[in-house]
Structure formats: C-alpha cells, structure tokens
Design a protein that fits this description.
CATH class of the largest domain: Alpha Beta
CATH architecture of the largest domain: Alpha-Beta Barrel
Bound molecules: flavin mononucleotide
Strand order of the largest sheet: 3-2-1-9-8-7-6-5-4
CATH superfamily of the largest domain: Aldolase class I
Largest sheet: 9 strands, parallel
Number of helices: 14
Radius of gyration: 20 Å
Structural class: alpha/beta
CATH topology of the largest domain: TIM Barrel
C-alpha cells in the first residue's frame, strides 16, 4: 500500500483527463493541476477553465501555482480561494526556460532570499493548506539543502521532491544520494517523484525510504493508467480488465474533448494523439505509428481499435 499522487503534466493532465482517470482507474489520492501562472498581468483562460469545478467532480484536485513574487503568489492564491480550494501546491521545480528566466519554478532555487519571501506569503492564507513541489536545485543540489531549514519551519502539508537538477530537465540520472540527504533533513511529510514506472519501482522506493508519506507518479501513470489502482489494491488487473478500462477511458476522453474543443475534427484529432505520447509504450510499434499518423478521426479510431486488439 502506498499513497499515490498524480503529478501535474502540462498538456496532459487537464481536468478532462483527471476526471476520466479518477472515474475509470482511480487509486490516486490527489491530482495536481498543471501550474497556473500570471501572464501579461492576468490569468490564461485555459488555466481558468482547468481549475473550474461544479461540485460533481470525482478527482481530489489540488491546484498548483507558479510565481516569482509575493504579488503574483497572492493573485493566484486568491483565485484558488474564490474557487473554493483549501489546498494548493507551490511549484519550485519547473525547468522550462521561460519560467526559469522569470525566477519561477527551479529558477528560484539559486535565490534563497527570493524563494523565502515567496514561501512566507503562505502565512497570509491561513485557510489554505500549502504543499511544495521542488527539485534538488537549478544547477547544484545544495540549493535545495540551503532551503530546507526554511521549508522545515513553514506550516506546509508536505513536500514533493524530484531528485534532478533543473538543467537536466526530465532526463539523465536520478540523484539518489541527493534524495537521501534531503530525506534525512526533511522534517515535513515527504513524497518521492521521478521515473517510477511500475509496481517493482514503487516497492523499491518504499523499501529504501520507509519514512516517505507517499509517491507522486507522472509519466509512469500516463503510460500505465491502472498503476495506482493496482498499487493501492495490491492486485493486478487482468489483460482483459486493463483493456476494458482503457476502452472506456479512451471513449470518455474523446467524448469530453469533442464537447469542449471548438476547433473541430482537426483539433480533436491532435489532442487525442497527444495521449499516445506516453500511453502503452510497449504496444506494437507499427500500430502505434498508425495511430500517430492517422489523418482523420475515422482512421484514428480504427487504428486505436487495432492497437487495443478489439
Ligand atoms: C510534459 C511535462 C509537463 C509537466 N508539467 C508540470 C507542471 O505543470 N507542474 C509541475 O510541477 N511539474 C510538471 N512536470 C513535471 C512532472 O510533474 C514530474 O515532476 C516529472 O515528470 C517527473 O516525474 P515522472 O518521472 O514520474 O514523470 C511536467 C513534466 C512533463 C514531462
């Protein structure tokens, strides 16, 4: 048994995806939204749509913010409050160059004073329970160790640590020693995140770090959406069960995106193809290619049918 959180993945884990996943696969304790940011002084409509809710949601959603200054932080935290959220996650790990240059995400890690004043803004929002998602540093692991004494003093719900540097983006070696050092010094509940793609890997992380509060899965769950449910129940789904759920999941995504996207067939096709960036990496290469190359929704649907052997 492990507590599993679904990582935020910009472009993938939007509200449609989160809801369909929670309804059909489940096993996830919390789903994080891709980060909400201030752009040209305001919010993006896309972000506003993604955090909107009507009370009928199945997924337990935690909205995430990225900010470089207390003013930006306040604007976004107030938005979350207006939408009735009582939890929020602070992104201190994003390595995207645009964000890093603006001293956001992992771009803030080399600047402990700026990071400190941003983080202390949580004290102005006592009705929101904040967590932090971070990395070991932008270019040196000791950036996060320097921040740890401040983090330990803040009333945070938990920290999620991805043990890479910002300059590595999402590739290259995981720094297990760095994670171990952070784990030793961290007095708050800690979640591990990074490259965990199967039950064996989940077990391995839990055994090595028994004091963890849980594990956050990203690409591993996009690849095998049943992974959290299997981990939590301790029971593997049969190949048929997995396929039945995948068929439902795929149909649900298609229906919901069709209802929301206004750009017609072309936009829907492009959106559906992105699911296959990560889903079922072990599937037959030729059939995957057929899905990704399909030029119409009809050919896409028949390629998916073939891939799922329906
Ligand atoms: C395409 C993509 C988009 C991402 N978007 C976000 C994001 O909005 N917020 C965030 O905190 N992390 C984001 N991440 C990082 C993931 O949440 C996660 O930390 C990373 O993928 C490592 O975990 P994994 O190996 O389990 O995928 C993103 C990663 C990818 C690959």
């Amino acid at each position: 048994m492990a507590v599993i959180h679904f990582a935020p993945l910009q472009g993938y884990t939007d509200s449609v995806y989160r809801e369909a996943h929670a309804r059909i696969f489940g096993g996830v304790d919390a789903y994080y939204t891709p980060f909400v940011r201030i752009e040209k002084g305001g919010f993006r409509n896309k972000d506003l749509r993604d955090i909107a809710r009507d009370g009928s949601e199945r997924a337990h959603v935690v909205p995430q913010l990225i900010a470089s200054t207390p003013d930006e932080f306040r604007l976004i935290a107030r938005l979350f409050q207006e939408h009735g959220y009582r939890e929020a996650d602070i992104n201190l790990g994003c390595p995207f160059p645009m964000q890093v240059r603006a001293h956001r995400g992992s771009g803030l890690l080399p600047y402990p004073e700026e990071a400190g004043s941003l983080l202390r803004t949580i004290e102005e929002f006592p009705d929101i329970s904040f967590s932090v998602k971070t990395r070991l540093g932008w270019e040196r692991a000791d950036e996060s160790f320097a921040l740890l004494s401040l983090l330990n003093k803040l009333p945070l719900k938990h920290i999620t640590l991805h043990p890479r540097l910002g300059i590595q983006q999402y590739k290259g070696a995981i720094d297990w020693e760095g994670f171990a050092r952070f784990y030793e010094g961290c007095e708050l509940p800690l979640y591990y995140n990074g490259d965990v793609a199967g039950l064996e890997a989940i077990r391995g992380v839990k055994e090595r770090f028994p004091g963890l509060a849980g594990i956050m899965l990203g690409r591993g769950l996009l690849a095998s959406p049943w992974l959290a449910a299997e981990c939590v129940s301790g029971q593997l789904l049969t190949a048929d069960e997995r396929r039945d759920k995948l068929v439902l999941f795929h149909a649900s995504l298609m229906d919901e995106y069709a209802a929301r996207l206004e750009g017609g067939e072309h936009q829907l096709l492009a959106k559906m193809k992105t699911i296959w960036d990560y889903l079922l990496p072990e599937a037959d290469k030729r059939l995957r290619k057929k899905v990704l190359k399909s030029a119409s929704l009809t050919s896409y649907q028949s390629a998916v049918k073939e891939l799922l052997s329906l």
